[in-house]
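Tutorial handout. Part one gives the primary structure; part two gives the three-dimensional structure as tokens.
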Amino acid sequence: MANRKYIVTLTNEEREYLEKLIQKGKVSGYKMRHAGILLKLDETSENQDWTGKAIAKAHNTNENSVTHIAKRFVEEGLESALMPKPHENRSRKIDGDVEANVIALACSKPPEGYERWSIRLLRDEIIRLEIADIERSSVNNILKKMNSSRGV
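Part two.
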């Protein structure tokens, strides 16, 4: 096998479990894909010709995913490697206060020389007023959520 940071070594029981999981076909797609990836990564298997790139291509994923599955197997065990990537708890940048300020600004009179607020103009004003450091798409999402037409 190629130089790998995380070496997957399956026991006979784990290999049999993964093979049955794939044959059963009544499990979620990601679980079947992860099982197949682990079987191809297995160092004890007689078929050790698989590279990370080839495994990724065979399972319609990317090399990073293959590496992450191997890492989770080595560090956390088989069940963890079979599960989808855990999502980080991200705190919302845009809370109710920011949304209220964006909507209030969008409902206010636009700057002199403009007939109405554009998304870009709103974003620039939100940043200038230090309401939030926000993307144009986030401004658009707030307005869409509120069914705002910005005076159109």
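Part three, for discussion. DSSP finds eight helices and no strands in the chain. The helical segments are 12-24, 29-41, 52-58, 63-76, 78-82, 96-107, 119-128, 136-145.
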